[in-house]
Amino acid sequence: MGSTMEKKKVFCPHPSPRLEKALGNIAEVRCIRTTTEEEYIERIRDINILVPPSHSRLRVSRPVIEAGKSLEMIQTFSAGYEHIDVEAATKNGIIVCNAAGVNAESVSELALTLILDLARRVSYADRSMRAGQFRRPPPPDMLLWGKTLGVIGLGNIGSRTALKGRLAFNMRVLVYDPYVTSDKAELVSAELVDLKTLLKESDAISIHCALTEKTRGLIGEEELALMKPTALLVNTARGGIISEKALIKCLEKRGIGGAGLDVYEEEPLSVDSPLRKLDNIVLTPIIGTAREVPLAQAGIENIIRFIKGQRPQRIVNPQVWKE
């Protein structure tokens, strides 16, 4: 695998001058806008390395993977990889790599930014001022100091969010993550609890888990009903973790204090989405990764490692790799 004697064929289903410039001397790079699965299947047949965009409705499905008879590696420039059928890739001996951890600081900063915005109603006040008004915003308009922060998912981003809440705002931190031990939670001065307890006791909740079949719709109508009427809910992970239908209903009746979203069930967010009409929500267009965070560069460097015959970093399915 990854022999330097071969000139690998790299395919990206959308234009990417950066990828072409970075790999053009060591690989045959094809960047062609692809909008249908049929086009994907046709263009991947002789490809060795696939670089799929993370925020696209076009998934790297089983038929696409099976059509890639020469496919050896799938490298996404995001931490999430739900747009890739990892099971199919593993079955076909294809390694899948992501960029986990590279943007951890950036996303955790955005999560706290959204919580702060909601707590002090900054965006609401800005809209009010621009409309010619000059008055204090309605509740929650609360202080974060000493409140309780709930973190769902204690990975790289969740850990940093927990630490920032604890150290910057003296917050009690509760963590829900069925895959970690209480010892890991204690490393970030947090308490490991079940989801029900976290929802009931938190003043602000930040979601940082992966989107899987188990976490899809994790926060629905029943879960929202457990939250405090002043509680704030922020999602910078993946849109499908929160049921947007349930969230809209909850916000319309003022069931919680507010919500902040950087991700959505369908992206880009529809222009006529009911979310756009609510005044107790802050919406951002997937800005979790700051421009200075080298997500793409980390992915490109990983591809170069593979081409040189070195073990790539951040392999999602390491059981496939063979030295």
Provide the structure class.
alpha/beta
Highest-level CATH class of the largest domain: Alpha Beta
Distance between the termini: 7 Å
The fold-level CATH name of the largest domain is Rossmann fold
Calculate Rg over CA atoms.
21 Å
Q: Any low-confidence stretches, pLDDT <50, length ≥5?
A: none
Q: Could you tell me the strand content as a percent range?
A: 5-15%
> Which CATH architecture of the largest domain?
3-Layer(aba) Sandwich
Order the strands across the largest sheet as they lie in space.
Answer: 8-7-6-9-10-11-12
Instruction: Work out the helicity level.
Output: 25-40%
Count of β-strands: 12
Q: Number of domains in the coordinates?
A: 2
Number of helices: 12
Overall form: globular
Task: Give a verbal description of the structure.
The protein has 2 domains: 9-101 and 294-320, Rossmann fold (3-Layer(aba) Sandwich); 104-283, 3-Layer(aba) Sandwich (Rossmann fold), CATH 3.40.50. The chain has helices spanning 17-23, 37-43, 62-67, 86-91, 104-120, 122-130, 156-169, 182-187, 195-201, 221-226, 244-252, 295-307, and strands spanning 9-12, 28-31, 49-50, 73-75, 95-97, 148-152, 172-176, 190-192, 204-207, 232-235, 258-261, 281-283. The protein is globular. Helix 10 links the parallel strand 9 and strand 10 (232-235). The longest helix is centred in the middle third of the chain and has 17 residues, at 104-120. With 323 residues, it is of the alpha/beta class. The model has no long low-confidence stretch (mean pLDDT 93).
